[in-house]
């Protein structure tokens, strides 16, 4: 699950990573012999905040090779600075056939800050425990079990684990260069063990105001960029945006506002960063409404748009699963092709990205069964 504006938080990664852990609960890890719990634990224990996925990738590559998968890596390149560690997507399959009918995929990066793995009774806490290492671990175990049961063979299923989902999807976009197509792709994100039938679209908009600096005692000598932005933002809070029965309301989040340099200086520059979750229509229509609303308040505010997409349809025609719509973005629109697409995984988005991210052991176990059923459905 991605928030579009998190890239600015990446700089804080190192500081966050050094936070001291929460008090440990004294519960012995009696499940270290369970391959699912062990894999999930080791994935969560490898900090992999976007841009820093290399350690968990190395762990996962070694794990998958030990399980006799053929493993390819795909270099994605640094997110920011070329001195950062390498970043790679991981493609794993049975035998020699990299071309498979079904793709099973999730992401190995997480949002900051890092929270250590912690077992609390029948719950597992920690950054990524839900989003999306719960999906990664259960997808792998599902494929292993289907192999062991003789239900899949070479050419049936490939696993793809990508970097950068939380920061714009550079990993999945790169996966389009693998030269592969599939009949079905099963994406792993927290859906509370339901099949998502669609997710909202997204548009990002920045407002930029340019004023004139001056002494705060003589406001008539300057022009405050902050004072320009405030009424425009207020107008946006009250603007009506498209809605639909399936996805509900389009919502608008003013996620970041920066302006001025000091209390006694008229602000020369101000910027607001806005994410819009689109429930109907495309990003262009929503941006047009936003632009017109802002310009009606102040012609001089610049409106800068960055990409985006409308609501994303997802297949959910599998017997035995409940379905739901979700408000978050995924890598689904980043993978080109006319494959059927499914979205499923353990845990709830309502705790993802939070300081209390956690799920139940039983959710992991249920997700293994769910992924097995989805893979078998897709191969039928
Ligand atoms: C991997 O293959 C080797 C050689 O065929 C075999 O001995 C080993 O048991 C396999 N490992 C797993 C986890 O299937
Ligand atoms: C959508 O917005 C309307 C008007 O603000 C509100 O009454 C309604 O409850 C909202 N619908 C949802 C699904 O949030
Ligand atoms: Zn996610």
Automatic annotation (TrEMBL):
UniProt domain Peptidase M20 dimerisation: residue ranges: 198-281
Classification via InterPro entries: ArgE/DapE_CS, Bact_exopeptidase_dim_dom, Peptidase_M20, Peptidase_M20_dimer, Peptidase_M20A
Molecular function GO labels: hydrolase activity; metal ion binding
Cofactor(s) of this protein: Zn(2+)
Keyword set includes Hydrolase: yes
Keyword Zinc: yes
Gene3D superfamilies, per the entry: 3.30.70.360, Zn peptidases (3.40.630.10)
Keywords: Hydrolase, Metal-binding, Zinc
Family statement drawn from the similarity comment of this UniProt entry: Belongs to the peptidase M20A family.
PANTHER family documented for this protein: ACETYLORNITHINE DEACETYLASE, PEPTIDASE M20 DIMERISATION DOMAIN-CONTAINING PROTEIN
Protein name per UniProt: Peptidase M20 dimerisation domain-containing protein
């Amino acid at each position: 699950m991605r928030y579009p504006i998190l890239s600015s938080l990446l700089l804080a990664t190192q500081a966050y990573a050094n936070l001291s852990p929460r008090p440990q609960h004294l519960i012995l890890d009696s499940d270290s012999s369970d391959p699912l719990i062990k894999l999930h634990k080791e994935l969560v224990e490898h900090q992999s905040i976007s841009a820093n996925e290399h350690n968990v990738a190395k762990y996962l590559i070694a794990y998958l090779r030990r399980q006799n998968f053929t493993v390819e890596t795909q270099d994605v390149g640094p997110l920011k600075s070329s001195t950062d560690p390498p970043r790679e997507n991981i493609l794993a399959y049975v035998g020699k056939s990299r071309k498979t009918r079904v793709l099973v995929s999730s992401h190995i990066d997480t949002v900051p800050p890092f929270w250590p793995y912690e077992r609390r009774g029948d719950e597992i806490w920690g950054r990524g425990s839900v989003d999306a290492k719960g999906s990664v671990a259960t997808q792998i175990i599902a494929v292993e079990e289907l192999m062991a049961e003789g239900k899949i063979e070479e050419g049936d299923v490939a696993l793809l684990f990508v970097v950068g989902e939380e920061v714009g999807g550079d990993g999945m976009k790169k996966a389009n260069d693998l030269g592969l197509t599939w009949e079905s792709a099963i994406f792993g994100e927290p859906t509370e063990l339901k099949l998502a039938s669609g997710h909202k679209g997204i548009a990002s908009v920045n407002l930029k105001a340019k004023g004139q600096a001056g002494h705060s005692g003589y406001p008539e000598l300057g022009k405050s960029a902050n004072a320009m932005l405030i009424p425009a933002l207020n107008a946006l809070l009250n603007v009506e945006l498209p809605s639909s029965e399936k996805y509900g309301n389009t919502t608008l989040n003013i996620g970041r506002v920066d302006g001025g340099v000091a209390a006694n200086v008229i602000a020369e520059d101000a910027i607001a960063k806005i994410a819009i979750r689109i429930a109907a229509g495309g990003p262009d229509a929503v941006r047009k409404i936003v632009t017109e609303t802002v310009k009606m308040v102040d012609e001089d505010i610049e409106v800068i748009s960055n990409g985006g997409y409308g609501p994303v349809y997802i297949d959910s025609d599998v017997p035995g699963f409940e379905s739901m719509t979700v408000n978050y973005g995924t890598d689904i629109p980043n993978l080109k092709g006319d494959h059927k697409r499914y979205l499923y995984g353990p845990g709830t988005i309502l705790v993802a990205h939070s300081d209390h991210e956690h799920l139940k052991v039983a959710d992991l176990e249920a997700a293994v069964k769910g992924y097995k059923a989805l893979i078998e459905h897709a191969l039928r």
